[in-house]
Amino acid sequence: MVKKILLAEDDADIRFIVNLILEDAGYHVEPISTGQDIVEGKHGTPDLFILDKALPVIDGFALCKYLKLKEETKNIPIIMISAYHELKEKAHRLGVDEFVEKPFDVKRLVSLVNKHTSSMI
After folding, report:
1. Do residues 25 and 18 make contact, with C-beta atoms less than 8 angstroms apart?
2. Quick check: is 114 in a domain?
3. If we measure between CA atoms, which residue out of 100, 44, 91, 101 comes closest to residue 68?
4. Smallest Cα–Cα separation from 39: which of 79, 67, 77?
5. What would the pLDDT profile of 16-27 be if each residue is shown by its tens digit?
6. pTM above 0.85, yes or no
């Protein structure tokens, strides 16, 4: 079964590139530009979230808190991407499983996605 990834990234170029990379790696990616879509329930439940920290309206930290409080999403892994490396520790305290700094290494990103989706049934 193909794993579903919900990618919330406001930068269209990064969203396009990450989507392409992960689809080439065999994943089904739902790219969105705002976390508000997730809160409003416009998307099904994925196997993994990839969240940009600097999302409009609802930033990645607030979205992470929200996802970890909801019963149906609290155990879904979250990878956060950000240009602000100093936020890594805070991200982990909020429940982020992995923190990836921009610009990111493509192989590392795919490896982290594989790591957090391979143990799923």
Report:
1. no
2. no
3. 91
4. 67
5. 999 999 999 999
6. yes
